[in-house]
Amino acid sequence: METKYKRFVNYKVVLCLLRVVIRVNCFLIEPDNLVKPNANGTSQCLAVSQFLAEKKVLKHQIDEVEQKIYQLKHDNDQTLTILTEQLKHKLSIMEDKLSETSKHNDSIRLFDLERKYTLMSEILSKVQINYRDLQSRYKTQDLENWRLTNLTLELEKKITVLDNLEGVNQILDIFTLKQQVHSLRQTTRLLTNHQNARNQDFLDLYNLTITSEKNMKQLQKDFSYDLHMIGNNWNQRIYDVNSRITNTFKDISAKNNELQSIVNDQNVTIMDVYSEIANIKDLLIENSRKVALTACSNGGTFPDTIVKFPNILTKTGISDIVSFKSSGKFVCEFPGLYFISSNIRSTSNLVKYYLKKNESIISYSAITDWSSSVGITTTGISAAVYCQKNDELYLYLGSFRNNIDGTGSCFTVMKIK
User: Fold this and answer.
1) Which residues are paired to 415 by β-bridges?
2) Where would one find coiled-coil regions in this protein (predicted)?
3) Distance CA 147, CA 366 (A)
């Protein structure tokens, strides 16, 4: 790219030299198309053939420079596009690799934690089921104990009543009743021991539940800590990736700014070149534009007025010929150097007429007063006039009464530069 930029600068230098070389002051239209040197031996004017030859060479060189500039701009655009695509591709590959590595490591740790959490959840579920079962059994045992207690109280009441009843000893066998009471007390004692054993089982289950809850809390704490560590590691990795991406984009931005600066310099240079080329083309077009008019009068007697030439013999490069025919004024549509030639043919003496640009007199001519002259006399004016756009050129008759011959009174305008 640097080599192409140097080549572009060389092309600019060459174009500037061409601009210096092609500047000319004027060209000379002569019958023999030869360059006449001045007193110092140097020529300030160019012959038409030499001007046309240099114009052709210059046009060819301008076309070559435009082609090279277009090719250089096209190459720069292609290089910038290729570099941008390659950089985007490399960034995409780097992001994909980082994402795959992070996802794989996090997936393994998350899978292990989920497995442990599932196992502890199953253990907790079993403990909770056993706990509910023990609670149910404890309630049943409590109800049974309450029933037996009530039964014992009733029996004790009955025994008390029997002890108080002295007359009942004859009906009941006291020994049998005592055996029944003893049996009931043994049954009650057995139930009490069974209840105590159930209470001990419930206490062991309660302790196991407390231990399981502690283990579950510890597992949850470890799980939260691992998740926190994974989050911190992931955030650190994301921060590192973002930092790398930010640095990469800063480098890309710096490169883009550098490329944009080069492109802007090239665009400014190209615009200057195009502007100069456009100016040269406009100058060439103006110099090569053809404007010519030859018109004649209808003849007649004219007072002090502008001469009109309604009979158009030749015209080129003129858009409003109707206005000229009606007013007699030639309006310059294109600025430049014009050659004017006019002939007035009259049978009158002392005929004066003037060539005017706008209201200023450029030149004038007159027919001499011959007292014995009865024929037709012709007089003419020739001049080179530099005109701006919308300047008016016309012939003005200064005599009071003039007889103008139509066939010999004509007006010619030709743009020569």
Assistant:
1) 338
2) 48-75
3) 162
Number of Cβ within a 10 Å radius of residue 278? 10
Paired strand residues for 295: 312, 411
Residue with structure tokens 């206490």?
203
**How far, in Å, CA of 79 to CA of 241, rounded?**
28
Residue with tokens 């985007």: 88
Q: In which element (H, E) is residue 416 found?
A: none
- Residue 325 tokens read as 């025919």
Smallest CA-to-CA distance from 325 within 297, 290, 346 is with 297
Q: Contact at 8 Å (CB) between 9 and 81?
A: no
3-state secondary structure of 297: coil
| Burial class, 367, CB count within 10 angstroms (exposed 0-12 / middle 13-18 / buried 19+) | buried
Q: Report CA 204 to chain centroid distance, whole Å.
A: 77
Cα–Cα distance for residue pair 230/228, rounded to 1 Å: 5
Predicted confidence (pLDDT) per residue in 17-58, tens digit: 555 444 444 444 444 444 445 455 554 555 677 778 877 888
State the first-to-last Cα distance of the chain, in angstroms, to the nearest integer.
45
Write the CA distances from 303 to 31, 179, 255, 280, 375, integer angstroms: 40, 177, 81, 48, 20
pLDDT in tens, 373-406: 556 777 788 898 989 888 999 988 876 566 777 6
Residues 6+ apart with CB under 8 A from 343: 378, 379, 380, 408, 409, 410
In three-state secondary structure terms, 152 is helix
Cα–Cα distance list, 141 to 8, 29, 148, 151, 207 (Å): 106, 139, 10, 15, 20
